[in-house]
Amino acid sequence: MLQILIADDHALLRKGLQDLLEAHSDWRVCGEAIDGRQVVLLAEKLKPDVAVVDLLMPGLNGIEATRRIRGVSPATAVLVLAGSYSEQIEEESIAAGARGFVLKSNAEDRIIAAIESLVRGETFFVREASRAGGERIAQAGARLQAQAAGLTSREIEITQLLAEGKTNWCIATILGISVRTVETHRANVMEKLGLQSVVELVHYAVRNQMVELLPPPARGVTPSDRRGARPLVRGRDHRLGAGGGR
Fold this sequence. Notes:
This protein is an alpha/beta fold. Helix content is 47%, strand content 14%. It folds into two domains: 2-147, Rossmann fold (3-Layer(aba) Sandwich); 153-235, Orthogonal Bundle (Arc Repressor Mutant, subunit A). The protein has ten helices and seven strands. The strands form two sheets. It has a five-stranded parallel sheet, sandwiched between helices. Strands 6-7 form a two-stranded antiparallel ribbon. The longest helix is centred in the middle third of the chain and has 15 residues, at 133-147.
């Protein structure tokens, strides 16, 4: 029985994926995750054969989650599910260790074929026919190293959380570190990126598609009505390359 772990922050999409995958008599969805951190924990615990990971997840994006899944469960083949395509995003997914990349717009038609390819030890990418997998991985890794801003994996994580509107205290709670450690990482990020304020950091994150802008509030909704509502940006895949460490 093929064990599949799925991760997406939308319950309806998870349900649709489960129904689609379990229509295959020899496949079973062994776990569901609603964000990047949870899917890493479940991958470490369940050791699934395949993990289907949404690219756009809050807190820890799909690319960083893929990298960590490969670290805690090397035998798990990761299939990245994305809402839109860019060659750079696909190459970053490959560099993080993904074995496949499928668009949500045609997932119903292609995800079965993608998982079957992964089970056979093959890869499944949007531009698969254009180059050999090994060449693509080497080129993607070289490009990431050349473009990397020098941020560690932890600094990338904190950058995304800051851009999503999280406070230092909230980030410290999420990551299980001290507020002082968050402040140190934040200062390092600002220095490495040459930024002077959190506003500039948000602009940087949006430009580099680490987060996406959410739709504006409905007409008639005042700023006070938005207190406690979701931030105006939402986590997305990073464009930064990553090192290790806290």
